[in-house]
Specification:
heterodimer; A: mainly alpha; B: 190 residues; mainly alpha; Rna Polymerase Sigma Factor, Chain: A; Arc Repressor Mutant, subunit A
Chain lengths: 185, 190
């Protein structure tokens, strides 16, 4: 009997508790609050967005076309040939000096392998070092020598007269003589 | 609230094309159900209202996919269910032991079942007992507390057969009864 009473009470309590557990009714004005929030949310303005969409698309297209035209008219950088003074036989087509960039940007701007191979191999010369064209200073000096009188040329010489070649006299070293050491007693 | 049955969502929620009037009608028709589904999970007015708001924002955001929906009520309830599950936080103002002790004292004092069920401690105790159920049973029981939802709609929300809904609901009640009985007798420990 007590068990039946207990089970009955438990059943009754559970049913009543589950009935009370049901979700409460929303507070008055829920729909109005939702609608007000929806009207102010960005997702609730499809008409406005639809109106701006063609304008934005047109502007983006114009920008892309202008950028393409600008890039098409811009002359492509030509590889320049630089002759190095210390190595006249080597002709190197220099790559334009790159600014120091972070690695991710530098990787993006790294020239391709084909671009690097633009370097022109110079023809092999018979003489080494290969004769190089005179510089501007050398040309001016030659012109002065050809035009200047002898007096002017003598002024260039040192005051003590012409420098004679250095003569080195031969030196003779006598043979080494070794005497016997005294024997120990 | 009238059931929309098998009407397509494009008839029920064609917000993308018909404008604000249809949107307003949709909110007015389904806001209460969405709120109650959210409340069943969150057990809090403020959180349930926030979840209701987020549910309708998601509906607007995904309105392009609404043409495939056949049961708009269940579709909305499912969104509200997921939103509420995402927002659920475990907040326990009263501990399980305190609630158990209070219910036992009320029971010993001869408090009737109806009166005891209305006590706040009993609600906390029931909430904890439901939370201790296996997940499949807990979800069915939670949605079943929403009066407006039929077993068909619960099955639609959870993506299970309707027969499974009924079986699980029966099993959940049996388990709850056993746990509650054990608690009242002092045999059950969480």
């Amino acid at each position: 009997m007590p068990d039946n009473y207990h089970d009955h009470f438990t059943e009754e309590l559970l049913e009543a508790a589950l009935a009370c557990y049901r979700p409460a009714e929303p507070r008055p004005g829920l729909e109005e609050r939702i609608l007000a929030n929806l009207r102010t949310s960005p997702q609730a303005a499809p008409r406005l967005r639809r109106g701006w969409l063609p304008v934005m698309a047109t502007a983006a297209t114009v920008l892309i076309v202008l950028a393409a035209l600008y890039l098409a008219r811009r002359p492509a950088p030509q590889p320049t040939v630089v002759r190095r003074a210390e190595a006249p036989s080597a002709t190197i087509s220099s790559v334009p000096v790159k600014p120091t960039l972070p690695r991710r940007y530098a990787a993006a701007r790294r020239p391709s392998r084909a671009a690097k191979q633009v370097a022109v191999a110079p023809p092999r010369q018979e003489r080494f070092p290969s004769p190089a064209p005179l510089s501007e200073q050398e040309l001016l000096l030659l012109r002065y020598v050809s035009l200047a009188p002898k007096e002017a040329l003598s002024a260039l010489q040192p005051a003590g007269g012409p420098i004679e070649p250095l003569r080195i006299e031969p030196r003779y070293i006598s043979d080494l003589v070794v005497s016997e050491l005294p024997r120990e007693k | 609230m009238a059931l929309l049955g098998q009407a397509s969502l494009s008839e029920a929620i064609p917000m993308a094309d018909a404008g604000d009037d249809v949107l307003e009608a949709t909110v007015r028709e389904h806001a209460s159900l969405v709120y109650k589904v959210a409340y069943a999970v969150l057990r809090n007015h403020h959180d349930a209202e926030d979840a209701t708001q987020e549910t309708f924002i998601r509906v607007l955001r995904h309105r392009k996919h609404s043409a495939k929906v056949r049961q708009p009520r269940a579709w909305l309830a499912r969104i509200a269910w997921r939103v509420a599950l995402d927002r659920r936080k475990t907040r326990h103002e009263i501990s399980f032991e305190e609630a158990t002790q209070a219910v036992r004292q009320l029971r010993a004092a001869g408090t009737g079942a109806e009166q005891l069920a209305a006590e706040r401690q009993m609600m906390v105790l029931l909430e904890r007992l439901i939370a201790s159920l296996p997940r499949k049973l807990r979800h069915v029981l939670t949605l079943a507390t929403v009066e407006e939802m039929s077993s068909v709609e619960i099955a639609e929300v959870l993506g299970i057969p309707e027969a499974s809904v009924r079986t699980r609901l029966l099993r959940a009640r049996q388990l709850l009864r056993q746990k509650l009985s054990g608690l009242l007798e002092g045999k059950y420990a969480r």
